[in-house]
Amino acid sequence: KLCVSIRMYLILPFKQEGQLHIRRIKSISNSALYRNAVKLELYRYVTSTPFNRKHWLPPNFTMEDEPLESGRSFKHSLSDKTLADIVEASLGACYLSQGVESALDCAIKMMIPFPEIKHWKEFATLNNAISPSPTCDEAEFLYLDIEAIESSINYNFRNKRLLYEAFTHPSCPNPNTSCYQRLEFLGDAVLDFLVVSYLFERYPGLKPANITELKGASVSNNFLSFISHSLGLHQHLIHSSSALSSNLMEFIDQMEKMQQTKQNQPHQYWLKLIHRKRLQI
């Protein structure tokens, strides 16, 4: 998902979030991965039955007293979802074995489309070649307190214009700078990758269903809104919507009341927040 999202973001600089999402689905949906698995004949290598010691033989050993019938074949039944899962599991195995470079190489061999890319470092080359950096007049930076944001998150941006784009709401049209929706598409994939990697390493004995549940809680709209408020990022949103201003005030009031309740009884109070997607900066 991460590699495909980066590629889509770079090669389609004028497509918006929804269009990028559709393109990504076509590349990595279960049906697409299943078709790739069939073309590569991965089903030939799948162990679909439990191991049975009575029927097992060491390599190069044969049972001479029970010769096989000539032309006899063996078949097993696998669902489309199983074959798609095998492709995903192979990508995960390559990543854990040798990192993201190996995972990208595996994805290419699994026929996931990366025609412009052969190595991880080529993403940077592709970025410089076909994806222009966002441009805006220096005066426009006056609308955004860049130093305050960088201080809040303890990170300095090399390209300040990207930060400006990340805080520009769709209600504030600008001929030189896009709104944050394209970066949101890319950031969603980055966040999923980082959270899953952390949970997988932090809790090695956790079942897949539990990892999925923890990931969902970590990237939920409510939790991201809570982080946005905690860091004060909502104060820097560039917009021209009176409805959004009203929603922001309502959210801040709601958050402050819940924080007061937290002092008496610690809990994950953001779970009760009324969802306001615009606060996920």
From TrEMBL:
PANTHER family reported in the protein's UniProt record: DICER-RELATED (PTHR14950), ENDORIBONUCLEASE DICER (PTHR14950:SF37)
UniProt KW keywords: Hydrolase
UniProt name for this protein: Ribonuclease III
A GO CC term assigned to this protein in UniProt: nucleus
Region forming the signal peptide: none
Key word Ribosomal protein present: no
GO biological process entries: siRNA processing
UniProt GO molecular function: ribonuclease III activity; RNA binding
Annotated ranges, domain RNase III: 1-99, 146-258
